[in-house]
Amino acid sequence: MATSPKLNDPLTIVTDEPGAEIAPGADDAPVAMPTEDWDLDSPEIYLNRELTWLEFNRRVLAEAQDDGNPLLERIKFVGIVSSNLDEFFMKRIGGLKQQVGAGVMDYSVDGRLPAEQIEECYSKVRELEAQKDELVPRLIEQLAEQDIHITPYHSLGEEHKAIIRSFYFENIYPLVTPQGVDSAHPFPFISNLSLNLLVTLRLTDSEEELRARVKVPVGLGIPRFLQVPDTHVFVPLESVMAENLDVLFPKMEIVACETFYVTRNANTARDEDQADDLLAMIESEVRHRRFANIVRVVVQASMDSTRRGMLAAELGLDEADVFEKKGLLATRDLLNLAFLEIPALRDPPHHPIDHPRLAHAPNIFYAIRDHGSILVHHPYESFSTSVERFLREASRDPKVRAIKMTLYRTSGDTKVIDYLVDAAQNGKQVAVVVELKARFDEAANIRWSSRLEEAGIHVTYGVMDLKTHCKVILVVRNDYSGLRRYVHIGTGNYHAGNARLYTDLGLLTCDPDIGRDTTELFNYLTTGFTPKRLYRKILPAPKLLKRALLDKIQREIDHCAQNPERGHIQIKINALEDKDIVRALYQASQCGVRIDLIVRDTCRLRPGLAGLSDNIRVFSVVGRFLEHARIYYFENDGEPEYYIGSADAMMRNLEHRVEVVAPVEDPELQARLRELLDAQVSDEYSHWRMNADGSYTRHIGSNEESDTCQQALILDATERMRNAKRLKRRKTQGMRRRNIALRPR
Question: Which entry of 469, 488, 495, 628 is annotated as an active-site residue?
Fold first, then answer.
C-alpha cells in the first residue's frame, strides 16, 4: 500500500508509474483499476480551503509586481489584494474564530483544527503583506516619475499645504469628532474598516499622557486622498489630519499620532426558523454586523509597543491578532486612484461588441426563436445589448405576458430594476425572487425589494435555509403559435458594473424543455414547496446537481474502461472545495480519465500525484478581468456535453444553495465553449499551473502578439464582429444585385 505523501514533500510527488490496468469485472465488462491503493480519505491529499484562497491572492499580487502591466493597473491589483484580505478576515477568519470560541474540535477535510488553520493563515497573510509593503513604495516612486504624487502633507510646498488645509477646514473638519479615552470615557466603538488616529498628548504643564481616538471620516463623498487642484498630487486624509491636530487639541503637546484600523467578523447569520419576518431579521443582522467581534487590528509598524499592546487589550485581541504594516495603511483605497484617466498608464480601452446575432436583429425574441439559442460572453460581448435588452424589450413588448427573475446582486447603474418596474406598469405579470442574504449586499437588496414591491411586483425571498444563487430570467410571450417561454440562464449576477469587469457566460434560449424546467424552478422558489419536480434538462441544486456531476464523472470512468482514449473532463469554475467531487475526480484520474481543471481560486485537489492524480492538470487564469464563468464539460464517448451555470463545486453551492446549470446543445455554441476552454489550457497563452504541493508556477505564453487568453478573446470577439459586418454587407449587396436583375427592362 502506498504511503500518502506529506503536504510539502516534493520527493513523494515526481515518480513514473504505469498507467491504469484493465481487468474484467463480474459482468465481463472491462473495469479500470488504479495502480496505487491510495486512501481517498487521507487528509494529506486535500489542500486547505483558506490557504489555497490566499495562494490565489499571491497570484493577483504577482500582477501588481509584473513590470509588463501598465502602472495604474498594477496599483489596481494592489487595491484588489488589500480588499480581498480584509474580506478574508471578515468572512473566513471570523468564522474560524467563532468555531474556536465554541470549542469546535472537528478536523477539516485536510486534517486541521480551526485554531491551526488560523495560525497558518496568519503566517501566509503576513508573507503577503510583507511583499505588498515592499512593492507599494516602489509603485509610488514610479507614479512620481509620471508626475502622479501620493505624498504626506508635510512634504507639500507651502502653497499646496495652504490649499489642502483650507479644503480640509471648510469641508471635512466640522465632521471630525475627537474622543478622549480615560476613566470617564471608555474606549470608543471602532467601526469596521474605518481608519483611525490614536493620538497621545499632554497638557503643557503636565507630564501625564492622555489618549484620544479620532476617526478619519472617509466616505459619503469624502475621499481618502485629497487632490491638489489642477495637479495629480494626492495627500492621504489621515496625514492632513495628523498635521493639523493643533486645532482639535489647542494648547496641548502632541506626543504621538498613530494610525490603525480594525476588521470585524461578518458572520452574524441568525436562525431563519425562529424569524417571523425574514426581511426584519436581515435588517437586524446588517445592523448587528456593525457591532460584531473584532478579529484583527492593523497598525503602523512604527507604533510604540506599549501603545500597541494597550490598543490590542482595549479591542479584546491577542498579540497575534495585531498586524503591523509599513507605510500606507488600508491600501484597498488605492483602487480609487487606479481609474485615473491617463490612457498611457492603463490597459487599452476595451469596448464590448454587440453580439453578432443581435447587432442587427430588430427584435430579440425573433432572433432567439428563428435562429436558435444565443451564447453571450461578457465582457467581450455587451451586457447592455444582450441581457438588459432582453429585459427592456420584454417590458415593452405587448405580446409579453409575464417576467420572472432571480436577483442575487445588482447595481445602481444596472437598468434591470427600471425595466422590471416598467414591465409592471405596462401590465405584465412580474415576479422577482430576491436573495436578501447576499453577503454585503443585504441592505441594497432590501432597498431594491421595497422599490419593486411599491411598483406592484410580486417579490419573494426564496426558500427557507437556502440561498437563491442561480441567475435566471423567464419571459412568457404570446407568439404566433401560442405561449412560448424565453429564458436567460447565466453564470454572473445581473450587475452592469460586474459585467464590464468579470468574465461570465449567458444562454438566451426558447428551448421548450428548458422553458418548462424554468417554470418548475420558479414555482419552487416562489412557494418553497418541495414535492418531486420533473426537470428535463436543467440541473438544479441542491436536489439534482451534485448527484448528476458525480454520475457524469463515473460515466467518464466507464467510457474510459471501454476506450482509454475517450475519457475526458474539463471544468472551469471559481472554486473546487467539495470533498465528494474531489474524491470522484481522483478516482477518475486513477482510471485513466484525462482531467483539466481551470479553477480561479480555492482548490482542494492536488494534481500530479503518481497513481492518484497524474492525469489531472489544474490551471488558474488571472488577468485584466476576474474569471467568473462556470463550464462543465464531459466528453461522453464522442457525444460531448457542455453545461454552464451559477454553481461552483463547493459544498455550500451544491448542498445549501439554489443553483442552476443548463446544457449548451447547439454545435456552434459548443464550438465557442471549446475555443474558450482550449485557450485557457493552451501553452500559447499565459496562465498559472498548480504544482502537487499546492503552489503555482506561472507559464508565459508563446504567442507574442496575444500573450494572455483574455487578450486573445478580445481580439477574437472583434474579429467575429468584423466578419458579421462583412457577411451582412455581402448579403445586402447580393440582394441589391438580385433586385436590379429582376427589374423589368
Answer: 469
